[in-house]
């Protein structure tokens, strides 16, 4: 496992992110970086059309990622080493880095541990994720057994939630916003323009420190306030908008560690944390107010366990929720666990919540042409 890099001072990071912005790094957010298996090439025309319309993001997936990087960097060759170093976290030859950053900047970044040098190559200890006009410092993407302690995450579901929320709150203004389970504070950033102030509550102290750096990098001091809190513990008062991308994946007890606290949703098939998020809304969501969070439901013999948990709570607490499905999938991390528990598949939901005397859950499925291939794939992969 790589050592956890100490956190750098804001100075050199602000210098680096300033350079990245000047060089046009934000434009790389259109490049799909997640590799799909080659047989999924049948869906590539859709990815290509989305790319052409500027609708892909840096976590979009493609069977032909090289096609997009190749064509993008033919126009912007100077950006490629920066993208490789700070987004893909690949090694870049020292001489190449010297051609794009001045010696003093490189030295500052080396001194602060933002980058390191090994055998003539430069590596970045951090990832810089471009999203909208913002840059977010996170840990590099690492496989489960390679991840560092107190891992700090940004990923595809961060973007899915942020996009969903932007559409839902377009044109609306709020007083007090909360980003719960904030990680890098990317969701706080997404609602900041709509709110007078936003609290970004997070349990992992390392993530709180990343959030503070990201607030500085994105000029949100005085607007977004990171704080350390175990779920609702240190959250005070009511908010008229609450956004939360909590951990929601089941992981067997013996595999739980500080390396997967971004993912592990707790007991009860990984639903404990999302259910506690829902429960806490009864105390912290203002009237009227809007809350939105992510959760995954295991499906066993056709029954959605998440619906079973949330339905009585919604009625008791006077909360009304709409569960909008955005993915049907299997537990890629641990198919054995999934088989042992008799889970046929998982449905990932964006859950919108408002107060209402009547309570109740409503479910919105993906249209059949999008649901069927995903579901079929999830059901087949379970047997691999
Ligand atoms: C899936 S990550 C999402 C991070 C960020 N909100 C985003 O959208 O990218 C879940 C986050 O919840 C944090 N977390 C885990 N358990 C928590 C708890 N009990 N209280 C608050 N935050 C928690 C993790 O450290 C991680 O940063």
Quaternary status of these chains?
single chain
Query: What number of domains?
Result: 2
Count of distinct strands: 16
Give the rounded overall mean pLDDT. 94
Helix content: 25-40%
What is the string of helix and strand elements? HEHEHHEHHEEEEHEHEHEEHHEEHEHEEH
Helical stretch count? 14
Percent strand: 15-25%
Shape: globular
Q: Please state the structural category.
A: alpha/beta
CATH architecture assignment of the largest domain: 3-Layer(aba) Sandwich
Show unreliable segments: none
Biggest β-sheet strands, sense, barrel: 9 strands, mixed
CATH topology of the largest domain: Rossmann fold
Describe this structure in words.
The chain is an alpha/beta fold and 384 residues long. The chain has 14 helices and 16 strands. Strands 8, 9, 10, 11, 12, 13, 14, 15 and 16 form a 9-stranded mixed β-sheet that branches. Strand 8 (174-180), helix 8 and strand 9 form a beta-alpha-beta unit. Helix 7 (156-169) packs parallel to helix 8 (186-192) and helix 11 runs parallel beside helix 12. The structure holds S-adenosylmethionine. The site of S-adenosylmethionine has 21 residues, from helix 7 and helix 8.
Which tags fit this structure?
three-stranded antiparallel sheet; Rossmann fold; 14 helices; 384 residues; binds S-adenosylmethionine
Can I get a quick summary?
The longest helix has 14 residues, at about 155-170. Helix 7 runs parallel beside helix 8 and helix 11 (about 270-285) packs parallel to helix 12.
